[in-house]
Amino acid sequence: MHRRIFTPALLLACSLVLAVSVAPPRASAQASVITDNRTVPIDFIATACNGETVIISGESHVVVHSTSNPNHNTLKTHIQFHLSGTSASGTEYVANETVDSIENSSAGGAQVLNSVGQLHLISQGGGDNLVVRTTIHTTVNANGEITALSFEFTTDCNG
């Protein structure tokens, strides 16, 4: 398992999801609805099974839809990844995946978000496929303040 650092663009995509999810609900009898639709460029470095560096780039299309009322919050997230990359020896990789999630919580209380995702980078040659695993943990107190935030990215080989 190889640990790799992603660029700020990927963290921006994750932060975008978190920013909408931690917004405190409005104090009104009506539901408030927020939808955010963005395309975020992504580039990062992974390590192939043979130890070679793989430069991955592309974009993610992120749609976040949040509905809140005084008693309940619902957050729906839809992300489409379109990525490609090349290793030092020329092996090409592609990833075209969709990630969907739904989070429900009580309005006005503390929230904990744990998210584990996988992105499959498929080798277009004789090399092994790669699985990039993303783990996000966020804790938000009742005032809407982030009290804990962590991102972890790892790469596994998948022959």
Keywords:
159 residues; 8-stranded antiparallel beta sheet; 9% helix; elongated
Question: Any chance you could write out the topology, listing elements then pairs?
Answer:
Elements: E1 2-3, H1 8-21, E2 32-47, E3 53-68, E4 72-87, E5 92-106, E6 111-123, E7 129-140, E8 146-158
Antiparallel strand pairs: 1-8, 2-3, 3-4, 4-5, 5-6, 6-7, 7-8
Characterize the structure shown.
The chain is mainly beta and 159 residues long. It contains one helix and eight strands. It has one helix spanning 8-21, and strands spanning 2-3, 32-47, 53-68, 72-87, 92-106, 111-123, 129-140, 146-158. Strands 1-8-7-6-5-4-3-2 form an eight-stranded antiparallel sheet, with helices on one face. A hairpin with a 5-residue loop joins β6 (111-123) and β7. The radius of gyration is 18 Å and the shape is elongated. The two termini are 14 Å apart. 20% of the residues are buried. Residues 1-13 and 15-28 have low confidence and may be disordered.
Give the termini distance in whole angstroms. 14 Å
What form results from the Cα inertia axes? elongated
Helix segment tally: 1
Strand tally: 8
Mean pLDDT over all positions: 76
Instruction: Record the strand order, biggest sheet.
Output: 1-8-7-6-5-4-3-2
